[in-house]
Design goal:
single chain, 4 helices, Four Helix Bundle (Hemerythrin (Met), subunit A), about 150 residues, mainly alpha
Length: about 150
């Protein structure tokens, strides 16, 4: 699937990311804001920006992991494994950036920009549907603004 973001310069919150389950939507909006901040960071600011992202990602992934475990979400294992892989990469890259390897940090950020839409569309949307069905009895209804129709 092609990502709606082909460049890192335009990574911003959009209705395309809304899933209809407020706790996840709020966390995803913060994800986009933190990644956008990393895109703007100078080399001197990059390690700190990555640290901020790591803190956000831990809270973000812990929330989703907890939701999946507590509700026995059927495909939770692969989703939790993907979160763990991202955190492992982030930890490794932070150490390299602290050694002055800024391009590796920038590569990670670019990968996050490309990873997020697909992860949200596939894994997170299934979790959001699951959570809404459990709490409200059905799938979420999501109204999106300014979509370009074919």
């Amino acid at each position: 699937m092609n990502s709606p973001h082909t460049t890192t310069e335009d990574f911003e919150w959009t209705d395309k990311f809304i899933l209809g389950y407020r706790p996840m939507d709020d966390m995803h909006q913060e994800f986009v804001e933190v990644v956008s901040k990393m895109l703007q960071a100078s080399d001197k600011e990059l390690a700190g920006a990555l640290d901020e992202f790591a803190q956000h990602a831990k809270v973000h992934f812990d929330l989703e992991n907890q939701l999946m475990e507590e509700t026995q979400f059927p495909p939770r294992d692969c989703h939790i494994d993907e979160h763990a892989a991202v955190m492992k990469s982030v930890t490794e890259v932070i150490a390299l950036v602290r050694e002055g390897q800024f391009e590796i940090g920038r590569s990670l950020i670019a990968e996050l920009v490309h990873w997020f839409p697909s992860h949200t569309d596939h894994l997170d949307s299934a979790l959001a549907h699951w959570m809404c069905k459990r709490s409200l009895g059905g799938k979420p209804v999501v109204l999106r603004r300014n979509l370009k129709l074919r």
